[in-house]
Structure prediction request, 1142 residues.
Amino acid sequence: MTQVNIQKPLLEIRDLRIEGHYEDAWHPLLKGIDLTLQRGEVLGLIGESGAGKSTLGLASMGYVRDGCRITGGSVRFDGMELVGARAEALRKLRGLRIAYVAQSAAASFNPAHRLIDQHVETAVKNGGIDRAQAEAEAVELYRVLRLPNPEQIGQRYPHQVSGGQLQRVMTAMAIACHPDLIVFDEPTTALDVTTQIEVLAAIRDVVKTYGSAALYISHDLAVVAQMADRIMVLRHGKLVEEADTRSMLNAPQQEYTKSLWAVRSFRTDPKICAAQQRPLLEVRQACASYGQQPVLHDVSLTLHRGQTLAVIGESGSGKSSTARLITGLLPPTAGQVLYDGEALPADFRRRSKEQLRRIQMIYQIPDTALNPRQRIVDIIGRPLTFYLGLKGQAMRKRVAELLEMIELDPAVYMERQPRELSGGQKQRICIARALAAEPQLIICDEVTSALDQLVAEGVLKLLNRIQQQLGVAYLFITHDVATVRAIADQVLVMQRGRVVDHGSRDAIFSPPYRDYTGLLFSSEPEMDPDWLNRLLASRAAPSTLQPV
Amino acid sequence: MNSLYKLLVQRLALGLLSLFAVAVIIFLAVGMLPGDVAEAMLGQAATPETVAALRAQLGLDVPALTRFGQWAWHLLHGDLGVSLANQRPIAELIASRLANTFSLAALAALVSVPVALLLGILAALYRNSWFDRLLNTSALSAVSFPEFFVAYILILVFAVKLNWLPSISNLAPGASFGEVLERSLLPVLTLSLVVVAQMMRMTRAALINLLASPYIEMARLKGISPARIIFRHALPNALAPIINVVALNLAYLVVGVVVVEVVFVYPGLGQLLVDSVAKRDIPVVQACSLIFAATYILLNTTADVLSIASNPRLMHPKG
Amino acid sequence: MSLFKQLLRAPLSAKFGLAVIVLYVLVALFAPVLAPYGETQVVGEGFAPWGSEFLLGTDNLGRDMFSRLVYGARNTLGIAFLTTVLAFALGGFCGLVAAIKGGWVDQGLSRVVDILMAIPQLIFALLILSVVGTTATSLVLVIALLDATRVFRLSRAVAMTVVVQDFVEAARLRGEGLWWLVSREVLPNAAAPLIAEFGLRFCFVFLFISALSFLGLGIQPPTADWGSMVRDNAVLITFGDISPLLPALAVALITVSVNFVVDWVLHASSGLKEC
Prediction:
């Protein structure tokens, strides 16, 4: 390696400005950012969507995406200016001295080549390392990262390896040439919490062992707290606050940072349920499959009027299939769905208008849940006309009432189109559309997981207020333990198409835990820099953590 | 490998099935379409006797199924029937013309495929440069031109004004190879121009689509050289779309020859088809249509099989 | 942004294309006013040269070239437009329904289209025309039917991307009928690619009919039509006279223009995708 000056920072970014081109104009993405990173230091970059953290991460490699441009400032890596540097010079740095770990390993590995070929590519082509040696080192790294079958896994193609393992292989690939700096761009965001632990542990091991400096980008403060020595909070392309991890967690200075921290404290009041009452919704021993693939086994649940039942599980647990079963999109192969004691036809096409009206649905991604070619008044007005026969002024009046209920000004929003609204506002419109049908049950399918934390909290509070006002029941589907803790009256835990645990919120969240529930809850990162250490120490036998 | 074989067998079976269905359609179209073909064909000369005779010759007096059975049986034995216009066996009429048409299409493919792929890759690499813009605008214009327009412009320039090449490609039997080549040059050029433009546009689109994928960005961030990104990271994944582009255009080529043959009076299958349609020589039309359709299906099936075989997810299944 | 503003910001090629399209439509509409002679009127010797009496000379039968070019705009454009509209009405509607209904409706329609598309279009057209004869009506119907298969494929594919979105599922779960789903939920969101496809299809049909006419199997004499005008007068080219190329140029000009406009529409509706 080159001569190293210990006194000088490894990465020095000064007043960096980057613009992106969309909707026929240039918009600022980074509005003058300063950043200093010492050798061996791990810096966490956190912020909500649009904060510019990925743009900053890529810029530290001298890279801007197509459709973006650097308009000012400097990026110095080990004394070398990267802004305006020749492509050939940058190419010599990347992979060798600065490496990158992307959010989705599945998309970032080339499907046409074996993992090992992609792993050693930079080392062999640019690093002048002998191929056999590079491969031997790769196998050693896989062993260190506790990948199953370290000798063989490199011979596989990306689609033959699970997401969590692939993310670890990508981390190994980043370290292959012992770079001075690794940029981790949301490396665990696409993973389930139980898988995330493994990857987090792997990343930390690697960074510690090889002494690389790192930029760790995430929207999840609890995750960053485990990894970073120091944290920078970004918002709208600007720095909000910067401090070392512990003081940032214990004593945030800025209002914005404080509000980010406070999100997790929201709790609804538990609602008492009269046990004698007939349940509003009951699913009895339902099984279902997509084609030949069974997705639900013997699923039963009950939900009472005015209550919230949270269904929690990881991807593939069958929680969304349960929602589709209840709405009649996925007819069960066995078992039945009862509404107010009466069996519902399995297929929604055979349900009456009245039966359809009483169960409404809110979706995960509000952008695709609203027809982009309709105005807000059409979107909310349609169920009013369709179910309740309201037309003209009566319909508009009711739409205005509903808009006020979701805290949007009717005078402003009535005639707008969805694309003029923010993500949170769109989700509120979806809530209003569901309420327009005057349902007794609303199925909320991951309704906050596509939203930023602060916006998500607002939506949860709104849903809670509506429940108190109207006594509507929620079936709340989520993968997020914190959300369940915030809003559930009853909890159902699902794994691989089965119900593995259920009970009231208090019962579920107090020890002793059932095996899977315990694993799930303990895997949820906490706002404590020592959480990961404690967890790894407590899980003495790592073999139980291997994703199956 | 199981799922791969299953897919391939499925695709081949589908090809055979469509060939059969097409044969049925081509054959039965005559009987199923409205109006009496025999009467229409005879026009003014139709008397009850001549109509009955023609119906018998076309086989319209026997049930459709029997008729199809007989036709297919003869077909399988290489007997394509007899032309109504001159009573000669169709196989004889077609044989030499078929070779002419295929050699014309093959020559055009030989010229156009490499040129189009190269231009497409270059355009994708230097997208939005002046080179790309120029190429794109000319390609867009070229695909919009009717073939006969391109053909006559080439005749006007190369045959009439410059007097370098003959304007008519009526090959005499026993012509030397040089002569054949000289006479085929303009038709080949016409076909190539139209197909290159189309193929280049599609190749460019397929590659640009691919260059936007995260694994290409990852390769850039790994410091891989631009040439290696194209050849090692992009092209292996672009194989399937490019194979499809090529097959689609080759299939087009086989059909596109019809107009070009007429312009240049080139003695191929296309010209025979057009003449026979004008004369309503239905057995010849059927035979020619079947040959064109079979070629078309063969090309499409080959493309599908190749693109299935080039998909790593299918070549290396999980487990 | 208003349509007019977008138009002002369009690239030169699109503006050129739009101008040509408007010009053609005007010529087609006012053909009898613009043409100095009748469509089939024999006004002089065959192959008269260009001059003040006959602007572009006369054709093989002694009819005025310029007048026939003008009438040709009306005939060729009209027939191509009618055919494209028919193809869209049939193929577009079936494609949308197949995408929304799914199941056996989709399977059935898709397999029929697969089989029809296994035969090259020109060959299929020649086969059918040889049986039913080449009248204008049969021409329009046959080409419309064949093109409907292509339109079906595209509209089904476009509709599929819309149908999988949650707002369509929401409408289904509300209990909306097929007509509402097609007209209110899917069609408005599939409009941009379908409009572009309409342009491309129109070009294709236009070229197709011209090619058939050029082969003598399309629009029949004495109707003025650009494809057959090239065919009738092609012999002049060997004498270095470019008059027969004029109708071919007319065909090329309109298809290029439509393509330029479609390219712009597609680019504009795809947003920032290609930067």
About this structure: The interface with chain B takes residues 58, 61, 63, 65-66, 90-96, 99-100, 102, 104, 107-113, 121-122, 125-126, 156-157, 159-160 of chain A (CB under 8 Å). Chain A has two domains: 11-263, 281-523.
